[in-house]
Amino acid sequence: MARLIDGKQLSAQVLVEVATEVQQLKAEHGITPALAVVLVGDDPASQVYVRNKVLRAEEAGIRSIEHRLEADTDQQTLNAVVDQLNKDPEVHGILVQLPLPKQLDEAQIIAAINPAKDVDGFHPLSVGALASGQPSLVPCTPLGCMIMLQQIHNDLSGKHAVVIGRSNIVGKPMAALLLQANCTVTTVHSHTQNIEALCRQADIVVAAVGRPELVKADWIKTGATVIDVGINAVEVDGRRKLVGDVDFASVEPVAEAITPVPGGVGPMTIACLMKNTLTAARAQLASVASKDIESNPEPTAAVG
Ligand SMILES: Nc1nc(=O)c2c([nH]1)NC[C@@H]1CN(c3ccc(C(=O)N[C@@H](CCC(=O)O)C(=O)O)cc3)C=[N+]21
């Protein structure tokens, strides 16, 4: 029996920590961290995400702002919304829900977000900072996965981690974080030969491809840790149900530890979004303070 890494419980712990620090920021500086979410159209996965996000923000004491735009919104209109949020000193985090309707240029919008408010960690500056080991806002899902892994491994040094999938939002930043934690990292994807054999060498498998129950028991080394990022809606006997990228029933007996779906990585993603909003609010406070010092320098002592 594998140890179950309970994302519901662990995310609740993360949220309590965030809530405590949010209260501190309010008490000491009179600042309420605020997170703005921009949702264009009505993608069903994004709807679930927005609903859960509003609930968790409330629990954390974070102010939450929603901008819902029509599915046929044009680039200029979306840019104007982002620009207004960029300039608003009372907004600390901005998240534009992906995927966007196809008339919109995702890369352009992401690059238009003020990097200081980039709580998704998708801005090119955030991506570059993570890749080069500079402090940055880290994408929420990979950050949540790292917190889950820390429950199982005190030290990830020297572990072989196989990341299945190379998306900008999960696979690539996940690989960067594992590398930062001194893992040996292999990223496998649709063009990889012998995926199963590579996975079987892994101490840690992170599955993030969006293919229902792709990873089977014979892909997994006995005693490996398995993190399942997939959230796939499938029909079983005419009912909609959520399954991961891992065939949980068959893999669970082989693994040392495994995350469930639902109740695994999903809730951690949302908790990390709150964590990033707090981090962004603090950094913005510090940056305002340093600008004040620049514009009002201490009078220099008269010499002589
Ligand atoms: N810019 C951007 N950043 C995102 O991070 C982002 C996005 N766009 N667009 C949509 C996807 C989807 N996503 C989810 C996160 C958590 C759950 C989640 O908490 N799921 C629950 C179950 C949800 C349910 O009740 O059905 C769970 O896994 O237990 C779901 C979906 C983040 N996304």
UniProtKB/TrEMBL annotation:
It holds the Pfam family THF_DHG_CYH. Keywords: Amino-acid biosynthesis, Histidine biosynthesis, Hydrolase, Methionine biosynthesis, Multifunctional enzyme, NADP, One-carbon metabolism, Oxidoreductase, Purine biosynthesis. Its EC number is 1.5.1.5, 3.5.4.9. Residues 139-284 form the Tetrahydrofolate dehydrogenase/cyclohydrolase NAD(P)-binding domain. It comes from the Bacteria. Residues 5-120 form the Tetrahydrofolate dehydrogenase/cyclohydrolase catalytic domain. It catalyses: (6R)-5,10-methylene-5,6,7,8-tetrahydrofolate + NADP(+) = (6R)-5,10-methenyltetrahydrofolate + NADPH; (6R)-5,10-methenyltetrahydrofolate + H2O = (6R)-10-formyltetrahydrofolate + H(+). GO terms for cellular component: cytosol. Pathway: One-carbon metabolism; tetrahydrofolate interconversion. GO terms for biological process: L-histidine biosynthetic process; methionine biosynthetic process; purine nucleotide biosynthetic process; tetrahydrofolate interconversion. Homodimer. This is Bifunctional protein FolD. It comes from Oceanospirillum sediminis.
